[in-house]
UniProtKB/TrEMBL annotation:
<dbReference type="Pfam" id="PF04007">
    <property type="entry name" value="DUF354"/>
</dbReference>
<dbReference type="InterPro" id="IPR007152">
    <property type="entry name" value="DUF354"/>
</dbReference>
<protein>
    <submittedName>
        <fullName>DUF354 domain-containing protein</fullName>
    </submittedName>
</protein>
Length: 372
C-alpha cells in the first residue's frame, strides 16, 4: 500500500518517524509531505525519511496565512502524483488534500483549543484519533488511545537515550543544567496566545543560573543571549530529547516539549496563556500525576524552579512517577502502523476505543516537590 504523511512542524516528524520506517520495512511505499518550518526539514534529513516540501513559512502568523493557497496547490499536486491509499495528518492540510484526491484520511489530534481547524478538517476524515485525556467530542468518528502523541517516540519500548549527550553539550558528568525553551507562537492555534517574553526571560535565566547551567532553545531566535546568564542550545535539533532526558529541569512556554519532558522523567514548568481553567486535558493530567507544573506568572516560575533545583532526590522521584504513569500507556507507533494496515478503519482495533467523554484521572494525593 501507499501512505502519505503530513509533517507541518518538527513535532510531526517525531510523531510519524518510527511508523514511516516500520511501514517501509514491511514493503509499503511511503512519502512525507513537509512544510519547511523551523527545523522540520532538518529532522527529515537526519532521520533519512522520504519527503517532498509543499511550502515554507516563518514563525509569524502572517507568514503562514499569506502562503496557504500556494501550500494547498503544491500539496495537492504532489499527492496526486503519489496517489496514496491513505493519508495521515493533524488538520486541514491532510484532510482537504485527501478529500480532493479521493483518499481516506486519518487525523491524529491532541490540541482542544484548535477549534477552527477541527471544524474545517474533521468532517473529511475517515477516523479521528486523540489521546484519552482529550476533553472535546469530535463526533462519531472520534477514537482515543491511552497515552499522548509523544508516546510514538518517547515510549519506553522505543526511546533509547544517547549516552554521549553531555559530551556533545560540553557539560560535566555531574554538572546540573536546565533548559529554557521559548516558543515562537506562530501557528494558527496560537492566535491571541503568548508565553515568556521580554525581560521575563532574563529574570528567569538569572535565577536558574544560581543553581544550574542554563541552555536556551528559542524557536523565534530573538532572545539576546548577551544580556542573559545562559548559552544557546546549539546541537542538532534531533538531539534535543537526549539533552532533555539528562536535564535537571525544563522551563518552557511551549506545549510539546513539556509533555516530552514528562515522558522522559524530567521536571517541567510550563507557563503560557493557555494555562488556566480551560487548559488542555493532557497538561491537566500530567500535573495531576506530579510530572509538570502549570503556572501563570514569572514569580511562580521562579519559585517552582528554585524548589526543584534545590531538592535532593528529585531525579529518583520524577523517574518513579514517570515509570508509574507510562506503565499502562500505549506505544502509539504500533497503533499508527495498525491503523495504516487497516486502511484507517479503526473500529475493530483493540488499541483504540470510541470517545465516550470519560475524564482523566484525579490528582494524585501528593504531588509536591518533596512530598514523595
Amino acid at each position: 500500500m501507499k501512505y502519505l504523511f503530513f509533517t507541518n512542524t518538527p513535532a510531526h516528524v517525531h510523531l510519524y518517524k518510527h511508523a514511516v520506517r516500520t511501514l517501509r520495512e514491511r514493503g509499503h511505499d511511503v512519502l512525507v509531505l513537509a512544510r519547511d518550518y523551523t527545523c522540520t526539514v532538518d529532522l527529515l534529513e537526519w532521520y533519512e525519511l522520504p519527503y517532498e516540501v509543499y511550502g515554507s513559512c516563518g514563525t509569524t502568523k502572517g507568514s503562514l496565512l499569506s502562503r496557504l493557497p500556494a501550500h494547498y496547490a503544491r500539496a495537492i499536486r504532489l499527492a496526486l502524483r503519489f496517489d496514496p491509499d491513505l493519508v495521515f495528518g493533524m488538520g486541514g492540510y491532510a484532510a482537504h488534500t485527501g478529500a480532493v484526491i479521493g483518499a481516506p484520511t486519518v487525523l491524529l489530534i491532541d490540541s482542544e483549543p484548535a477549534s477552527f481547524d477541527h471544524t474545517i478538517s474533521t468532517p473529511f476524515a475517515r477516523a479521528i484519533i486523540t489521546p484519552n485525556t482529550f476533553r472535546k467530542d469530535l463526533g462519531e468518528k472520534h477514537y482515543v488511545f491511552s497515552g499522548f502523541k509523544e508516546c510514538a517516540y518517547l515510549h519506553p519500548e522505543i526511546y533509547e537515550p544517547d549516552p554521549t549527550i553531555r559530551d556533545r553539550l560540553g557539560v560535566g558528568p555531574d554538572e546540573p543544567y536546565a533548559i529554557l525553551r521559548l516558543n515562537a507562537f506562530g501557528s494558527q492555534h496560537d492566535v491571541g496566545k503568548k508565553g515568556i517574553t521580554g525581560s521575563a526571560r532574563r529574570h528567569i535565566a538569572d535565577h536558574l543560573d544560581e543553581e544550574a547551567t542554563v541552555l536556551v532553545s528559542d524557536e523565534g531566535d530573538d532572545t539576546d543571549l548577551e544580556n542573559i546568564s545562559a548559552r544557546q542550545f546549539d546541537l542538532h535539533p534531533a538531539l534535543m530529547h537526549d539533552a532533555l532526558a539528562e536535564a535537571e529541569l525544563l522551563v518552557a512556554d511551549t506545549q510539546t516539549m513539556v509533555t516530552e519532558a514528562a515522558l522522559l522523567g524530567t521536571p517541567a514548568i510550563r507557563s503560557n496563556s493557555f494555562v488556566g481553567d480551560d487548559d488542555m486535558g493532557n497538561f491537566v493530567e500530567l500535573e495531576n500525576q506530579g510530572l509538570i507544573h502549570n503556572v501563570g506568572s514569572v514569580d511562580e516560575i521562579v519559585d517552582q524552579a528554585m524548589g526543584v533545583l534545590a531538592s535532593d532526590g528529585i531525579d529518583e522521584t520524577w523517574q518513579r512517577r514517570r515509570d508509574e504513569f507510562l506503565s499502562d500507556k500505549a506505544n502509539l507507533t504500533e497503533i499508527i502502523v495498525d491503523v495504516a494496515t487497516a486502511n484507517g478503519r479503526v473500529d475493530e482495533l483493540e488499541s483504540v476505543r470510541q470517545f465516550d467523554g470519560a475524564l482523566a484521572s484525579e490528582p494524585s494525593a501528593a504531588v509536591g516537590v518533596g512530598s514523595d
